[in-house]
Amino acid sequence: MKAIVLFSGGLDSTLAVKVIQAQGIEAIPVHFLMPFLQCGEVSEITPWRDKHSQTLGAPITLRDISEEFLKIVEHPRFGYGKNFNPCIDCKILMLRKAGEFMEEAGASFVATGEVAGQRPKSQHKDTLNLIEKESGLKGYLLRPLSAKLLRLTIPEEKKWIERDKLYGFSGRGRKPQMELAQRLGITDYSWPGGGCLLTNESFCTRIDDLLKHGDLNLFNIKLARSGRYFRLSPSFKLVVGKNEEGNEKIKKFAAEADIYPVRDKTETQVFSTSNGVYFEPKGLPGPSAVGIGNYTEDEKIKAAQIVARYTDSDDDSVEVIIKEKGRESVMSVKRLDDKIVRELMV
Ligand code: SF4
């Protein structure tokens, strides 16, 4: 007997895996990758997966559902939470995907670490029932931590799993889970922070900006996560690195956006046709920045002035390297006034 268990990395889903395993069922943990989670990409998540797979005693399967998730961010059937978090649609999507995986893996049901009433909207009892129905898993979705408070499921009815050995946790308190963790010998665990980046008010102003300008796609989301974000015109935005890590990411995005000069096999320089521009200060420490979209000469100068603003130079003018359409130039600019910088920052 096998069961797919949705795994987020927090204690609740760790307990769900352990409770299933304790009844002699093979738990297959699955973690869904989405653009608004802390680790957004497979390469970033490998150490995380290895560590948790060891704790769970079962290898975690990763599934990337970013593209489908973006569609529900734009048009959630069941609306948003407090910010741009479409939690109900998101859970339906994850469970639908878990159901597909269940078929693929020859598993018999799906389990989650959800606790009834833990989150005001998406974990209300009625909402749990709605999510189950909409996911196509009706009867085959077990919430082992709250099972005793919920309707009998098929795995319980058919005695694949003993209902008596499941739990009846509810509400926001964490004490019962902590006690269970202690009994199961789980000591190294974390509580998931209150949701993904879509629950973060200040980040959501950037999502709002991308939505308003018809710009919401995976590339722009990664970009918006990488540094200070500025809207210079309806068709042009700029992201300025905040630290070394952010600068490296921005360089990578600039390369992805095909801004750098490239050479073909005959070593002839091929000019990029990308609508992007890359900036970095010349000869002094400072941020990398990338502008994406259609821009005027004035907007390009303003972007260079923003980059100059974030250098430590005491000089009146700062030289900024500019790479665009396969060409490289240097421009000497004054720092943009702080008030204007603040107005342009999203
Ligand atoms: S907080 Fe984010 S990841 Fe979590 S359910 Fe809501 S939308 Fe999905």
Account of the protein in words:
It is built from twelve helices and 13 strands. The protein has 346 residues and is of the alpha/beta class. The chain has two domains: 2-183, 3-Layer(aba) Sandwich (Rossmann fold); 200-344, no CATH class. Helix 2 links the parallel strand 2 (26-33) and strand 3 (61-64). Residues 261-265 and 267-271 have low confidence and may be disordered. The protein binds iron/sulfur cluster. Residues 85-87, 90-91, 195-196, 198-199 line the site of iron/sulfur cluster.
Q: What is the end-to-end distance?
A: 51 Å
**What number of structural domains do the residues give?**
2
Mean pLDDT: 90
The number of E-state strands comes to 13
Largest sheet: 6 strands, antiparallel
Q: What is the CATH fold-level name of the largest domain?
A: Rossmann fold
Poorly predicted segments: 261-265, 267-271
Roughly how much helix do the residues carry, as a percent range?
A: 25-40%
Strand content bin = 15-25%
Please state the overall shape, judged from the principal axes of the Cα atoms.
elongated
What would CATH call the homologous superfamily of the largest domain? HUPs
Proper CATH architecture of the largest domain = 3-Layer(aba) Sandwich
Put simply, the count of helices is: 12
CATH class of the largest domain: Alpha Beta
Class based on secondary structure composition and strand pairing: alpha/beta
Computed over alpha carbons, the radius of gyration is 24 Å
Q: What are the secondary-structure elements, in order, as H or E?
A: EHEHEHHEHEHHHHEEHEEEEHEEH
